[in-house]
Design brief:
The complex is a heterodimer of chains A (about 750) and B (about 160). Chain A is α+β, with helices and mostly antiparallel strands and about 750 residues long. Chain A folds into three domains: about 30-125 and about 200-275, Aldehyde oxidase/xanthine dehydrogenase, a/b hammerhead (Aldehyde Oxidoreductase, domain 3), CATH 3.90.1170; about 295-445 and about 590-735, Aldehyde oxidase/xanthine dehydrogenase, molybdopterin binding domain (Aldehyde Oxidoreductase, domain 4, 2-Layer Sandwich); about 445-585, Aldehyde oxidase/xanthine dehydrogenase, molybdopterin binding domain (Aldehyde Oxidoreductase, domain 4). A seven-stranded mixed beta sheet of chain A has the order 3-7-1-14-11-12-13, with helices on both faces. In chain A, strands 9-17-16-15-10 form a five-stranded mixed beta sheet, with helices on both faces. Chain A is globular, with a radius of gyration of 27 Å. Chain B is globular and about 45 Å long. The chains are: A alpha+beta (about 750), B alpha+beta (about 160).
């Protein structure tokens, strides 16, 4: 590959690769401190109940037990994942889902702690519970949060048990539907999904001799953990230090406070370090997954395929608490298309099941499944090629996105063309074989980003950021710094982060680190070069604009051999007026930069069993400048395989009566294995982003959006059945082949009536 | 009550006092202070705890520590020596076969044990060999590529 860059667009091993392949990388569960106690949790066995009696006396006197805490040991304070504060860190009176932790024990070892947990006596008074969100929204259903209207951060919404209602409107939707030649209407349902990170939630809490709390955490957001802990424990932020350990996968599940408050309070009460490592069953039953989503979607279309109107009503089940908002649903109801008139609604509905958490652009994969399946339905309804329909309606530069931002230059069309070429569309295949397409869109994430670069004595630099590495971002940030400073990759040392040392930074999530944090790093590097140049100018007695920066030195442009290396300048800085060189940069928002990806699946359907086998999976994504192509492809591979799991096998199931998680293990929640997968084919489209470091775009999220729709569309192409519910299990496909493909029940008119929109 | 247990771990004889109910994984992590093997599920489903027991890959969470008495155990910490990384470790680094890294010690041990048995595998052989190791980050593509590259390296140097 020819490149204008000296460092970027080349493959580099991860900066943490050696630690990881030798087993030396230290995750939170690898922290062992002298005198450390083990923490275990008692889960609620009821979906909705008042705690009448909670007797911990036998547990407290069990040998080896040092401390037991329950909800009332914590300050009487409700916290939330966003503005709405709907949740106690541990319930004080009422439990809202099966699995909700109601007591925590610290003991000398795990066995003693678990024995003590089993000695805790609980008496419940059951309250009416509701599990199905489509019932919960009706006025006759049981109420999950009777005091909801009094919660801090609650905004007016329509419907019963509704935590949030988000809306987006444009144009005259009803008129546009009346003018349309054809109206296509569908309901789609996507399943509960576990994030499937391999490292269970883990935390060690310790109290320093001066009383300060130290948390060794498995987290995507050390500063967010610090702020939330300060709130729920009612201690100042400055009395808490969070050390972000190596993160063994998070995918959104570790963005916010999880169970850190339990070992923290136990450590404060005992003065001993306390370690909590969840079992895999606890990961499945206590920590928020994605919950099922039901999507009603209707389009008004002209005979030539032009989409003129879109209506979408989405019910996001949020479980017992709003652990993550349904925000993403809104922006993606029109997909990557020009739709002049739309009415989009996202309801977040409480039910008595485990609270909803974040997972890789929460909600967007659900919306993409609906929108991209629906696009194929429109194409077949009109007799238009699904590829051509997408090209006809796809967003172009200068169009206005859902949020009102103007779409800047992008590679959407290039991704579609690349896919068409790779899969040789349109294909005429033998019976039982099919191909399907999906178009995915996301945006490069924004948020608080900071970086500091200090120049070491030998001319290398140390890069300090507060962002946790979840995707190889430390390596990419080092590459950005190296490129901007004109030094080799190996001359950048990436420091590990800790809230006492690193500058404040937002969470690592939503594909924002390379784009936003990378921009901060680029600017910090530029700031470093400015300071080096100023010092060189002073020493050389020349104006700054006479100097250039290349290959780790500041040189005189008229006389290149004359100059000072970074090492010489670092030495000189010690005795200079300005002092040691440190470059910094901060930012909190970045311009709208979309990311588009086109994908294609080729499948084979076994008519006897309904089994779907993916034979080929191709994705083309506009990644802008590929900072480290090997890492970019790693992100594409990993994301698309998560999407294939979502399409075919992964299914977090809930008991319809109690809402309890039915399959809390890797043996029953089926994530893809190496043997399940085809070879993955990636095409990188490189249309530089107008903003972002050296033209890089976000990468990680879109790959996972497409597979459910691409595979469902391929199944339709193969055997002529349209599956509108995930996953596309053999059982479900076989039922459809046998004509037992039930439409999903959804009373959209009730939702329209509630806001005074005329029902059709 | 803790009972004596003799293990040869990474070439070193260790006599330890270990709880009778401890798994080999707990013994390695809690008693031998070797935290390279990971507890991803403790149910034998994820493979993150894979170590070699007398040369064969085992999920150490499913092996009772005392049933491994007098066995030779190789953990991820035992692969690299002063001369550097093992061929499998090196291939994972060079081919980008790792991301968050939590599953990697198990994957590398599965691959190491497998390549000792079959140094000339097809890609499908490799996929089956690591079929008991869950990885959520990589999609396995670069992991498989790394194991194939390691196999070639081992063949060329042996």
């Amino acid at each position: 590959m020819t490149t204008q860059f000296k460092v970027l667009e080349r493959n580099y091993p991860r900066v943490d690769a050696y630690e990881k392949v030798t087993g030396r990388a230290t995750y939170a569960s690898d922290v062992y401190l002298p005198g450390m106690l083990a923490c275990k949790l008692l889960p609620s066995t009821r979906s909705h109940a008042r705690i009448v009696r909670l007797d911990t006396s036998k547990a407290a006197s069990h040998p080896g037990v040092r401390c037991v805490v329950t909800g009332t040991d914590f300050p009487d304070f409700r916290f939330g994942s966003g503005a709405l504060r709907d949740r106690y860190v541990m319930p004080r009176e009422v439990v809202n889902f099966v699995g909700e932790p109601i007591a925590a024990v610290a003991a000398d070892d795990e066995a003693a702690a678990q024995e003590a947990i089993e000695l805790i006596e609980v008496e419940y008074e059951d309250l009416p519970a509701v599990v199905n969100p489509l019932s919960a929204i009706g006025s006759g259903a049981a109420t999950v949060h009777p005091e909801l209207e009094n919660y801090e951060g609650y905004g007016f919404t329509l419907g019963h048990n509704v935590s949030t209602l988000l809306d987006a409107d444009r144009g005259d939707v009803d008129q546009a539907f009346r003018d349309a030649d054809v109206v296509v209407e569908d309901v789609y349902r996507s399943q509960g999904i576990n994030q499937g990170f391999l490292e269970p939630m883990a935390c060690v809490a310790d109290v320093e001799p001066n009383g300060r709390l130290v948390i060794y955490a498995s987290t995507q957001g050390p500063y967010q953990i610090r702020a939330a802990l300060a709130s729920v424990l009612e201690i100042p932020v400055s009395r808490i230090r969070v050390v972000a350990m190596e993160l063994g996968g998070g995918f959104g599940a570790k963005l916010r406070l999880a169970f850190e408050a339990f070992p923290a309070l136990l450590a404060m009460k005992t003065g001993r370090p306390v370690k909590l490592v969840n079992t895999r069953e606890e990961v499945f039953t206590m920590n928020g997954p994605r919950l099922p989503v039901t999507n009603y979607i209707r389009s008004g279309v002209m005979q030539d395929g032009t989409i003129v109107a879109r209506e979408a009503y989405t019910i996001f089940d949020v479980g017992a608490y709003l652990g993550a908002g349904p925000n993403s649903g809104i922006g993606h109801g029109i997909g990557a298309y020009r739709v002049p008139n739309f009415r989009l609604r996202s309801y977040g509905v409480y039910t008595n099941k485990i609270y909803v958490g974040s997972y890789r652009a929460s909600g967007v994969a659900d919306m993409t499944f609906a929108v991209e399946s629906h696009m194929d339905r429109i194409a077949h309804e009109l007799g238009i090629d699904p590829y051509d329909l997408r090209v006809k309606n796809a967003l172009r530069e200068g169009d206005v996105s859902v949020s009102g931002a103007v779409v800047p230059t992008n590679g959407l069309m290039n991704t579609l063309e690349a896919i068409r070429e790779k899969i040789d569309w349109p294909r005429d295949l033998e019976d039982g074989h099919g191909v399907g397409l999906a178009l995915c869109e996301w945006r490069s994430g924004s948020g608080p980003s900071t970086a500091a670069i200090s120049v070491n004595d030998d001319g290398t630099v140390s890069l300090l950021t507060g962002s946790v590495d979840i995707s190889g971002s430390d390596t990419s940030l080092a590459a950005i710094a190296a490129e901007a400073l004109g030094i080799p990759m190996e001359n950048v040392v990436v420091s590990k982060r800790d809230t006492d040392q690193a500058p404040y930074t937002g969470q690592s999530g939503g594909s924002r680190i390379v784009y936003s944090q990378g921009t901060a790093v680029q600017r910090a590097a530029e700031n470093t070069v400015e300071k080096l140049t100023a010092l060189a100018a002073e020493r050389l007695g020349l104006p700054e604009d006479a100097l250039g920066c290349e290959d780790g030195r500041i040189y005189v442009m008229d006389n290149e051999p004359q100059g000072l290396t970074f090492a010489q300048l670092a030495a000189a800085s010690i005795t200079s007026r300005g002092g040691p060189i440190i470059g910094t940069a901060s930012l909190s928002s970045m311009p709208y930069t979309p990311v588009f990806a086109a994908q294609a699946a080729e499948v084979k359907v076994d008519r006897a069993t309904g089994q779907v086998k993916v034979l080929r999976y191709i994705q083309a994504q506009d990644v802008g400048t590929a900072i480290n192509p090997m890492a970019v492809e790693g992100q594409l591979d990993g994301g698309v395989v998560q999407g294939i799991g979502r399409a075919l096998t992964e299914d977090q199931q809930f008991d319809p009566e109690t809402g309890a998680v039915r399959n809390p293990s890797f043996a029953s929640y089926l994530m893809p294995l190496a043997i399940d997968l085809p070879e993955l084919e990636n095409v990188l489209i490189n249309v530089p982003a107008p903003d972002g470091p050296f033209g890089a775009r976000a990468v990680a999220e879109p790959p996972g959006f497409g597979p459910p729709a691409a595979i469902a569309n391929a199944v339709y192409d193969a055997v002529g059945v349209r599956i509108k519910e995930l996953p596309l299990s053999g059982e479900r496909v076989l039922a459809a082949l046998n004509g037992q493909n039930a439409e999903i029940d959804f009373d959209v008119d009730a939702l329209r009536r509630a806001e005074g929109v005329a029902a059709d | 009550m803790k009972q004596p247990l003799n293990l040869n771990i990474n070439g070193e004889n260790r006599l330890m006092l270990v709880e009778p109910y401890y798994s080999l994984l707990d013994c390695l992590r809690d008693d031998a202070q070797l935290t390279g093997a990971k507890k991803g599920c403790d149910e034998g489903d994820c493979g993150a705890c894979t170590v070699l027991m007398d040369g064969k890959p085992v999920t150490s969470c499913l092996v009772l520590a005392h049933s491994a008495h007098d066995s030779a155990i190789t953990t991820i910490e035992g692969l690299a020596d002063v001369d550097g990384l093992s061929p499998v470790q090196k291939a994972f680094v060079e081919h980008g076969g790792l991301q968050c890294g939590f599953c990697i010690p198990g994957l590398i041990m599965s691959a190491t044990g497998f390549l000792q048995e079959n140094p000339n595998p097809t890609e499908e052989d490799v996929r089956f060999a690591i079929g008991g190791n869950l990885c959520r980050c990589t999609g396995y593509a670069r992991v498989v590529e790394a194991v194939m590259a390691a196999a070639q390296e081992i063949r060329e140097t042996s």
